TrEMBL record:
Protein name: Sodium bicarbonate cotransporter 3-like protein
Pfam families: HCO3_cotransp
Cellular component terms (Gene Ontology): membrane
Species, as recorded: Equus caballus (Horse)
Bilayer disposition of the protein: Multi-pass membrane protein
Cross-referenced PANTHER family: ANION EXCHANGE PROTEIN, SODIUM BICARBONATE COTRANSPORTER 3
Amino acid sequence: GDELTSYSCVCNEPPNPSNETLKMWKEKNVTAHDISWGNLTVSECKTFHGVFVGSACSLHGPYIPDVLFWCVILFFTTFFLSSFLKQFKTKRYFPTKVRSTISDFAVFLTIVIMVAIDYLVGVPSPKLHVPEKFEPTDPNRGWIISPLGENPWWTLLIAAIPALLCTILIFMDQQITAVIINRKEHKLKKGAGYHLDLLMVGVTLGVCSVMGLPWFVAATVLSISHVNSLKVESECSAPGEQPKFLGIREQRVTGLMIFILMGLSVFMTSILKFIPMPVLYGVFLYMGVSSLKGIQFFDRIKLFGMPAKHQPDLIYLRYV
């Protein structure tokens, strides 16, 4: 704290200016001596291709204060606002239709609100990095990747060991997620297509590997959130009566629409680059926390802190 006076970031004349810089100065009809480097603003310094010198400089100019604090505010506000809007169904404000709509679109509304607040406040928080063109992000490679590349032949044999571990991991991840989704409490009617799911994951993994795309996995948190959002509850008849869980709306529309919209996000890059990263992290935290609800392992952990008389009447408590 005592050394704050020694921190500064000033604009200086570039020590050895490039031809491009000299040409630009010539166009503006100035020389390096005409420019009062010390008095330039950040944007002016960048315009004249000056260099930033000092302990308070990053690569692209001075460090901007309050960015970290603003990111923390965005992160926690996103998390709490999502939770609040999700539970809006049980509040007393507005008609039932409005309440349930707000509750259903809680995460979307939160992102829109937080992006608007971030834009209005104007602190340059780190934004989602979105590529401009539809092409491989590494310019040194094409769409298809050669399996061996420049590696010697024996690397194929050695790679079999980590590949086996990856196979076990993906198999476990896929099957555990499927078991959580298809458990008895969800009252699903359609049979669980374990084999077909695994076959599809296997095929897409092959395609992704050849094209150098990220691997396909059963996103446990997303899958649980998806099932939770499709729950059907009884309409309350008597006042104060808790709605009963009737089952899950089983259909393929939401899954299909989600992936179509994910594909269309390629054309929405101009909007997506306004989304701050802390807002996305807040949404991820909210999804992780919300999908813990109803997982038996987590429920059992909570029972440790519950006196016996307050414990709910669960089947597994009768036998333990």
